[in-house]
Amino acid sequence: MPAPKFDRFKKYLGKHKPSIQEIVREPTSGGIVFRHGKTGDLEILLIQDAKDRWTIPKGHIEEGETALQTARREIGEEAGLTDVDMLGWLGKIHFRYRRLDRLVLMTTQIYLVRAKGDTNAIQKEEWMNGIKWFSFAEALDLIEYEDIGKLMLLAKKRIRQEGL
């Protein structure tokens, strides 16, 4: 019996991913940014990343920065909002993803943030596909990450209980 010919099956076998050589920890920080709209309804600011996923403004903690300082800076950089009240820590979430031969473990500290001043003057960064205020229900529906959604519910409860 002749040897089987595998050449025609090679196209079905995916490219071999390099094995994971390194585990990298990336601490990040961001905020669930809210305002009360014209009718008093709660609105949440979301950004749309380059892969069209809706999420909250967040970014890497730089050396010498606290997580709170990072959240404030990232909201300013990513949304153009600098007049904000940092109302406290909501929790942290963990992401895990692969970057070539590295396993990246990302921990994101999340803060509750009230936007003040001209909250319509939001500006998206070049790498973003969008930035927009949404009703709480829409934002919860659009948010791509379940853990952020849970913290949004916690944020809403705190806003209501504390009359924020």
Rounded mean pLDDT score? 90
Order of helices and strands: EEEEHEEEHH
Domain count: the total is 1
**Oligomer state of the chains in this structure:** single chain
What is the CA-based Rg, rounded? 20 Å
Share of β-strand residues? 35-45%
CATH homologous superfamily (4th level) name: Nucleoside Triphosphate Pyrophosphohydrolase
In the CATH classification, which architecture applies? Alpha-Beta Complex
The coarse overall form would be globular
Core attributes:
NUDIX_hydrolase_CS; 164 residues; hydrolase; Nucleoside Triphosphate Pyrophosphohydrolase; bis(5'-nucleosyl)-tetraphosphatase (asymmetrical) activity; 7-stranded mixed β-sheet; alpha+beta
